[in-house]
Amino acid sequence: MGTKRAIFLGIRFLFAFVILYYLFSRIPLSNVISTLASTKLNYLIFASILTIISQLIAAYRLKFFTSVQGMSLTAVQVFEINLATAFYGLFLPGGNLTGGAIRFYKLSMNDKKIAEAFASLALDRITATIALCIVGIVFWLIHVPSDSEYIIISMAAILFMLILSVVILTIGKRILQVSRIIDLNKVSFIASSFRKFFDTIDRFRNYSIRAIFFILGISVISQILGVIVYYLLALSLGIEISFFAMGWIRCAVLLVVMIPISISGLGLREASLLFLLRPYGVQDDKALALSLAIFGATTVFIGVIGGLFEVRKFLLQSFSSA
């Protein structure tokens, strides 16, 4: 590990620790534990099932993108890779960033298609985030909370930038032509890497508008399932809040968690939920308990299942080589 990377990783750990230390120094841990202990298991079980279904939809979406690239991965293999990614992200330094690197490695090693795996992951992430912003904006417009116009402006701005990035990718080959103006093509490695990447992106243009809207549609469904998961977890802790309010709050929280300044979103998730739930009269200890329940149901639970898949894979390989 390089010195700069180690310093950046240390800063992220420190950032998460400082926020969590501050929150737990102000909110009695005993209150949070008692709130979690009162969790209604029926809501928790239903939320866990919906989380798995959402993961299956995400696996199908990524399978769609990899198939366009001529990769031979099945939906089940992609599902297992996604769960394994969550597993390694739980304990390896770097959290989600490390998990993303492992997902890229596992996807590309099957067919040895590095550029294709990168393009598939990039478009998969863009599609998921576009769907997240669409759901967040729609739920905000239905609920229209007071004094939070900056949130919908932020979601709309991110949505615009994502759509713009898709447009830029679709005209990628023209970028290569423009690069001649700055003599980028004199750097053969950079030019060839750009060309190969945009060649992989170009394959997605062969799909119909119907197929594209279908993928975006199931992505929206996956995000709505995620809203239901958050809502059920809130109900399990006795938190009374509008379903539509939870819809845009979840979007705002996930967008904040995507900022790579923490480990697996720790600290960012808790602070943003406390801030956004206060106007609805949700006590800080319950908001913090909800954050931990969300982390447990959507990250730890999925990671544990991914770990079981990895153990099963290791045992099968051991027996086959014996």
Task: Describe the protein.
This protein is mostly helical. The radius of gyration is 21 Å and the shape is globular. Helices cover 80% and strands 0% of the residues. It is built from 13 helices and no strands. It starts with a helix and ends with a helix. The relative contact order is 0.15. The protein has helices spanning 3-26, 29-37, 41-68, 75-91, 96-111, 114-143, 149-170, 172-178, 188-202, 209-236, 243-257, 268-277, 284-321. The protein has one domain (3-19, 40-321). Helix 3 crosses helix 4 and helix 4 (75-91) packs across helix 13 (284-321). The model is unreliable at 173-187 (pLDDT under 50).
Low-confidence stretches: 173-187
Q: What is the number of domains?
A: 1
Structural class of the helix and strand makeup? mainly alpha
Largest sheet: none
The backbone outline, from C-alpha atoms, is: globular
Number of helices: 13
Number of strands: 0
Instruction: Give the termini separation.
Output: 34 Å
Concise overview:
By secondary structure, the protein is mainly α. The chain contains 13 helices and no strands.
Supply the key terms.
mainly alpha; single chain
Topology, please?
Layout: H1 3-26, H2 29-37, H3 41-68, H4 75-91, H5 96-111, H6 114-143, H7 149-170, H8 172-178, H9 188-202, H10 209-236, H11 243-257, H12 268-277, H13 284-321
Helix pairs in contact: 2-13, 3-4, 3-6, 3-10, 3-13, 4-5, 4-13, 5-6, 6-7, 6-9, 6-10, 6-11, 10-11, 11-12, 12-13
